[in-house]
From TrEMBL:
Name of protein: C4-dicarboxylate transport protein
Alphabetical GO biological process terms: L-aspartate transmembrane transport
Gene that encodes the chain: dctA2
Residues spanning the membrane: 23-41, 61-81, 93-113, 165-186, 198-220, 240-262
Membrane topology: Multi-pass membrane protein
Compositionally biased spans, kind Basic and acidic residues: 447-463
GO cellular component, one term: plasma membrane
């Protein structure tokens, strides 16, 4: 029997929260306050680093158990393992197509606008220092095959302790398949996983109450530490990256959703709270659980959401792919390193592999960039120092684009599975139902025959 519905929140007759109590409004205000603090009082802004990092650490603390529980529940709730394999294969095929499109768009944009022309940096004068030096060292030790070998953890506990999403997905898929393989013996465990998922989501709700504080600290530190002048000195590169990412989301992803008869702008508006949260924390992981709730609320089959979204956080990083191709060719232009068309296509082939499996790893963008440059050898790896100063300003855009890409990927896989009701999705996007007080759905235990249907209470989840 379903749990009783939560009481409606106080507010106007519609039952919606007052505007100043909505999370995205509070986070937006915190972002503005953080930018002003870092700009007007740089030392105070830089000192607020622990505030932002602590909040992001609290989110990441919950990401691995959430990924494990949702993937296991997704596999355990399907009627056959054949469906799991089919959904997983279709997801990976789409991820590969999205990554290739993002890399190609980045190459085209950087060659057309040439933001690195005229810099004339001497690679001999570039010194790798601090975190940048460590990222290059990690990248040099990482081959193009790393995402395959790194998928298998040295221990089950280590995957959760290190927060490696790819390894957790590997473990959760094995565990979910084992649950299905033992038949009725595993059904009580599946129900237990669903109950535990509800508890972990409630813990996440408590952590999310501090989201405005975390966003304030993160933005104050970024602006205070690196300064507005750092942003403007490489404004051409930053502007090109933001513009290309916007083009990718609106035109490329918008074209995909148009083929599904879904308006990209309505979809982005539906996910506005998740985008604002990602903007404030510079981490797409902070919105992963909320994104799954929103997509299930659109009527997308639960197993598709719970398999596609977590996997996409390691294999469908559209924003990171754009960044890789832009940054690699920018460094070549800035150091006057000539690159033929064949050499750029060689870079692209390597980046298809180095861009995978980096979700949840600190400095993943730089490690993947260093691994690419070290593998190819035609562009000096020390050139990453040219973009290191503005990386924090571009990380927000990477995370936002990754979030948009994974949202669209889930819709595509659902359509591929003939499980997407575009009419219902559009009606939901237009309706904007009243927001419940509790942001996470209450657990509803139902017969096994009904477990593949979207949860009714998820359709009402709005925050």
């Amino acid at each position: 029997m379903a749990a009783p519905a939560p009481p409606a929140p106080s507010g106007a007759g519609t039952g919606r929260k007052r505007w100043y109590r909505q999370l995205y409004v509070q986070v937006l205000a915190a972002i503005v306050a953080g930018v002003l603090t870092g700009w007007l009082w740089p030392s105070a802004g830089a000192a607020l680093e622990p505030v932002g990092t602590t909040f992001v650490a609290a989110i990441k603390m919950l990401i691995t158990p959430i990924v494990f529980l949702t993937v296991v529940a997704g596999i355990g709730g399907v009627d056959s393992l054949g469906r799991v394999g089919r959904v997983g294969l279709k997801s990976l095929l789409y991820f590969q197509a999205g990554t290739l499109a993002a890399l190609l768009l980045g190459l085209i944009a950087v060659n057309v606008f040439r933001p690195g022309a005229g810099v004339h940096a001497d690679p001999a004068d570039l010194r790798l220092e601090g975190d940048a030096g460590q990222y290059v060292k990690d990248g040099e030790n990482q081959g193009w095959w790393h995402f395959l070998t790194d998928a298998v953890p040295t221990s089950a506990v280590g995957a959760f302790a290190e927060g490696d999403i790819l390894q957790v997905i590997f473990l959760s898929v094995l565990f979910g398949i084992a649950l299905k393989a033992v038949g009725p013996l595993g059904e009580p465990l599946v129900d237990g996983v669903q109950r535990l998922t509800a508890v972990v989501f409630q813990v996440l709700h408590l952590v999310m109450l501090a989201a405005p504080v975390g966003a304030f600290g993160a933005m104050a530190y970024t602006v205070g530490r690196y300064g507005i002048s750092t942003l403007t000195s490489l404004g051409r590169l930053v502007g090109l990256f933001y513009g290309t990412s916007a083009f990718f989301v609106v035109v490329v992803l918008g074209g995909v959703t148009a083929a599904l008869r879904i308006n990209i702008f309505r979809l982005l508006g539906h996910l506005r709270e998740e985008f604002v949260l990602v903007l404030g924390t510079s981490s797409s992981e902070s919105a992963l659980p909320r994104l799954m709730v929103k997509l299930e609320g659109l009527g997308i089959r639960r197993d598709i959401v719970r398999l596609t979204v977590p996997t996409g956080y390691s294999f469908n990083l559209d924003g990171s792919s754009l960044y890789l191709s832009l940054a690699a060719v920018y460094i070549a232009q800035a150091t006057d390193t000539p690159l033929s068309l064949g050499q750029q296509l060689g870079l692209l082939a390597v980046m298809i592999l180095t861009s995978k499996g980096s979700g949840g790893v600190t400095g993943a963008g730089f490690i993947a960039l260093a691994a690419t440059l070290s593998t190819v050898g035609t562009v000096p790896a020390a050139g990453i120092m040219l973009v290191f100063g503005v990386d924090k300003f571009m990380s927000e855009c990477r995370a936002l684009t990754n979030l948009a890409g994974n949202s669209v990927a889930t819709l595509v896989v659902a359509r591929w599975e003939n499980a997407l009701d575009a009419t219902h999705v559009n009606e939901t996007l237009r309706a904007r139902p009243p927001r419940p007080r509790r942001p996470w759905p209450r657990l509803q235990v139902r017969p096994r025959s009904e477990q593949d249907e979207p949860q009714e209470d998820l359709k009402q989840a709005g925050t």
